[in-house]
UniProtKB/TrEMBL annotation:
CDD domains, sorted: cytidine_deaminase (cd01283)
Record domain CMP/dCMP-type deaminase: where: 24-151
UniProt GO MF annotations: cytidine deaminase activity; identical protein binding; zinc ion binding
Species this chain originates from: Pogonophryne albipinna
NCBIfam families (UniProt xref): cyt_deam_tetra, PRK05578.1
UniProt keyword terms in alphabetical order: Hydrolase, Metal-binding, Zinc
Binding, substrate: 65-71
Protein name as catalogued: cytidine deaminase
GO cellular component assignments: cytosol
Active-site residues, record numbering mapped to chain: 78 (proton donor)
GO BP term (any one): nucleobase-containing small molecule metabolic process
């Protein structure tokens, strides 16, 4: 029978549960980050990084950087440790310690990792360390001031005009799309698309497309297309096309 082995290397640090770590706990956390660094897979940068993340219940998750021949797939130590913790059900963190081989400088998390840490709250302390274990403590807010976080998504947004921006496809009234837009709109801007636009609009701008535009418009501009335009328009400009234009205007 096959045996499934757990490779868990989770450790714990004895801490009094306070938000502020004792000196001993800080030293242990930094030591954990130095141990994590031993596993760094960084044949391209040769820049080893280790991280040790302390959860609210004093569990430590370690991570190292993992690079890839496809360079941009590389993962930083901090994100590695956080992903390990989250995948084990942890989302509240007291602190994260970071270690590298830098002797004279405190290793500082990259911008991406600052954002990644920030996702789980502004209260996590970040310990930047040198090889001798000396450290500088920083808050997430100091590392990433005026940050964008999950709370922003719940903030009030402008919905008037039902304007939608999309980089894929938009099937919504009034659209700006880099893919294709199928629009049945009544607003001021009915479709701007870099793909194709099928528009049934009544607004001021009914379709601007770099692909093809099929427009049944009644507004001031019914179609501008660099592909082909099939337009049944009643507005001031019914079709400008660099491809072919089939136009049926009633004005
Ligand atoms: Zn990073």
């Amino acid at each position: 029978m096959d045996q499934v082995k757990s490779s868990s290397t989770v450790t714990h640090i004895n801490d009094q549960g306070s938000r502020h770590l004792s000196q001993e706990a800080i030293e242990k956390l930094i030591q954990q980050s130095q141990e994590a660094k031993q596993h760094a897979y960084c044949p391209y940068s040769n820049f080893r990084v280790g991280a040790a993340l302390l959860t609210m219940d004093n569990t430590v998750f370690r991570g190292c950087n993992v690079e890839n021949a496809c360079y941009n797939l590389g993962v930083c130590a901090e994100r590695n440790a956080i992903s390990k913790a989250v995948s084990e059900g942890y989302r509240s963190f007291k602190a994260i310690a970071i270690a590298s081989d830098q002797k004279d400088q405190f290793i500082s998390p990259c911008g991406g990792c600052r954002q990644f840490i920030r996702e789980f709250g502004l209260n996590c302390d970040v310990y930047l360390s040198k090889t001798d274990g000396s450290h500088r403590k920083m808050t997430v807010d100091e590392l990433l001031p005026v940050s964008f976080g999950p709370e922003e998504l719940d903030m009030k947004k402008v919905t008037d005009g039902q304007l939608a921006g999309s980089i894929g496809e938009a099937f919504i009234p009034d659209a700006v799309s880099l893919g294709s837009a199928e629009v049945e709109g009544t607003g001021a801007l009915d479709a701007v698309s870099l793909g194709s636009a099928e528009v049934d609009g009544t607004g001021a701008l009914d379709a601007v497309s770099l692909g093809s535009a099929e427009v049944e418009g009644t507004g001031a501009l019914d179609a501008v297309s660099l592909g082909s335009a099939e337009v049944e328009g009643t507005g001031a400009l019914d079709a400008v096309s660099l491809g072919s234009a089939e136009i049926n205007t009633s004005n």
